[in-house]
Automatic annotation (TrEMBL):
<dbReference type="InterPro" id="IPR005886">
    <property type="entry name" value="UDP_G4E"/>
</dbReference>
<dbReference type="InterPro" id="IPR036291">
    <property type="entry name" value="NAD(P)-bd_dom_sf"/>
</dbReference>
<comment type="pathway">
    <text>Carbohydrate metabolism; galactose metabolism.</text>
</comment>
<dbReference type="Pfam" id="PF16363">
    <property type="entry name" value="GDP_Man_Dehyd"/>
</dbReference>
<dbReference type="GO" id="GO:0005829">
    <property type="term" value="C:cytosol"/>
</dbReference>
<keyword id="KW-0413">Isomerase</keyword>
<dbReference type="InterPro" id="IPR016040">
    <property type="entry name" value="NAD(P)-bd_dom"/>
</dbReference>
<keyword id="KW-0520">NAD</keyword>
<dbReference type="GO" id="GO:0006012">
    <property type="term" value="P:galactose metabolic process"/>
</dbReference>
<protein>
    <recommendedName>
        <fullName>UDP-glucose 4-epimerase</fullName>
        <ecNumber>5.1.3.2</ecNumber>
    </recommendedName>
</protein>
<feature type="domain" description="NAD(P)-binding">
    <location>
        <begin position="6"/>
        <end position="329"/>
    </location>
</feature>
<keyword id="KW-0119">Carbohydrate metabolism</keyword>
<dbReference type="GO" id="GO:0003978">
    <property type="term" value="F:UDP-glucose 4-epimerase activity"/>
</dbReference>
<comment type="similarity">
    <text>Belongs to the NAD(P)-dependent epimerase/dehydratase family.</text>
</comment>
<comment type="subunit">
    <text>Homodimer.</text>
</comment>
Length: 345
C-alpha cells in the first residue's frame, strides 16, 4: 500500500473520481465531506468500482477543532487533495459571505495543520476563473490574474495567494494549485458522476436533466457575446482526465521532483466550445433533441476561456485524452443511471 491521502470533498463530483483513481493506484484514502452538496451513496459507488471502501469522516472543515482532531487521529497523512468548497458562480454573487467563509476558512484550517508536519504535500482545486476575461487565448499560466468577476473566483485567487505565502515561510510544505477549466462527464461505469443537490448551477448536469425530462428546458445565458454563434465559449475537460492529473501532480510533490515548493498548472483540453456547440454535440452523440431557450446574460460570466496546456503537458507529462463527445456520452449514461435508481426507489 502506498501513502495515505486525505481527499476533502471526496464524495463530490471531481473528488469522488479522484478517490477512485487513487484507490486503483493502490493509495490508501480517507475522505472528509460534510455532504452539503454530495450524497453518502457516492461512497457505495466508489466501493463498487474499486472493490475498496475509503475511510470516511463526516464533518465541516469550517470547524477548526474538528480539523485539529482529525490530524491527531491520522498523523500518517502527508498528502492532501483539497476539493471541499462552494463552487457556483451565480450563487456566489447572491451569497458572497457564504463563499468567503466556506472557501477560505477551511483552507486556512488545513494549512495550519499541514505546516506543522515535517513533510506535507498539498494539491489545491483552483480554477481558470482567476484569469477573468483573459486578454489573449488560449490562456497560459503567465496570463495576469485579473480582478475576479465573482466572489467564487475571488476565493480561488485569495486561496492561491494564501497557499503561496504559506509555502514561502514553511519549506516543509509543498503545494500545487491546479487551475482547471470546465469539468464534465462521469466514470465509464456510471456508478459515480455529477449529482448536484437542487437546481444544477453548471451547464452539463442541467443539460442532461433537461434531456431526460426533469427540467422543462435549458436556458442559454446570452447569444450576443462576440463569438462565432454569440454564446459563451469554455474548455470542457473530462473528469477522468482531471482526476488523473491530480494524482500526477501529487506524486510530483511526494517524489520531490518539483523545482520549488509552490507551482500552478492549467488543466484543460486546449480547445474551446460554445454553449450551442455543446448542445449540438450532445444531440448528435445521443440522438436526443434538447429543448432550450436563449435568455439574458448571467452576471459573473465571461465571454471565452480555454487553456494553453503546454506547461502541464511538458512538466507533468499529462495530457487530456477524452473528447467532448466522450464526456457528454458518459454524462448521459450517468443521467440515465440516476433515473433508473430513482424509478426503483
Amino acid at each position: 500500500m502506498k501513502a495515505k491521502i486525505l481527499v476533502t470533498g471526496g464524495l463530490g463530483f471531481i473528488g469522488s473520481h479522484t478517490v477512485v483513481a487513487l484507490l486503483e493506484q493502490d493509495y490508501d484514502v480517507v475522505i472528509i465531506d460534510n455532504l452539503s452538496n454530495s450524497s453518502i451513496e457516492v461512497l457505495g459507488g466508489i466501493t463498487k468500482i474499486t472493490g475498496r471502501t475509503p475511510e470516511f469522516e463526516n464533518f465541516d472543515l469550517r470547524n477548526k477543532e474538528q480539523v485539529i482532531e482529525f490530524f491527531d487521529k491520522y498523523p500518517e497523512i502527508n498528502g492532501v487533495i483539497h476539493f471541499a468548497a462552494s463552487k457556483a458562480v451565480g450563487e456566489s454573487v447572491e451569497n458572497p459571505l457564504l463563499y468567503y467563509e466556506n472557501n477560505l476558512s477551511t483552507l486556512i484550517h488545513l494549512l495550519k495543520q499541514l505546516s506543522k508536519k515535517q513533510d506535507a504535500n498539498f494539491i489545491f482545486s483552483s480554477s481558470c476563473t482567476v484569469y477573468g476575461q483573459a486578454d489573449t487565448l488560449p490562456i497560459s499560466e503567465d496570463a495576469p490574474v485579473k480582478k475576479a468577476m465573482s466572489p467564487y473566483g475571488n476565493t480561488k485567487q485569495i486561496g492561491e495567494e494564501i497557499i503561496e505565502d504559506t509555502c514561502k515561510v514553511h519549506p516543509n510544505l509543498k503545494a500545487i494549485s491546479l487551475r482547471y477549466f470546465n469539468p464534465v462527464g462521469a466514470h465509464p461505469s456510471a456508478e459515480i458522476g455529477e449529482l448536484p443537490i437542487g437546481t444544477p448551477q453548471n451547464l452539463i448536469p442541467f443539460l442532461t436533466q433537461t434531456a431526460i425530462g426533469k427540467r422543462e428546458q435549458l436556458s442559454v445565458f446570452g447569444d450576443d457575446y462576440p463569438t462565432s454563434d454569440g454564446t459563451c465559449i469554455r474548455d470542457y475537460i473530462h473528469v477522468m482526465d482531471l482526476a488523473q492529473a491530480h494524482i500526477i501532480a501529487l506524486e510530483r510533490l511526494m517524489q520531490n521532483k518539483a523545482e520549488n515548493n509552490y507551482n500552478v498548472f492549467n488543466l484543460g483540453t486546449g480547445k474551446g466550445n460554445s454553449v450551442l456547440e455543446v448542445i449540438k454535440t450532445f444531440e448528435n452523440s445521443t440522438g436526443v433533441d434538447l429543448p432550450y431557450k436563449i435568455v439574458g446574460r448571467r452576471e459573473g460570466d465571461i465571454t471565452a476561456a480555454y487553456a494553453d496546456t503546454g506547461k502541464a503537458n511538458s512538466v507533468l507529462n499529462w495530457k487530456a485524452k477524452y473528447t467532448l463527445d466522450d464526456a457528454l456520452k458518459s454524462a448521459w449514461k450517468w443521467e440515465n443511471k440516476v433515473k433508473e435508481k430513482e424509478t426503483q426507489e
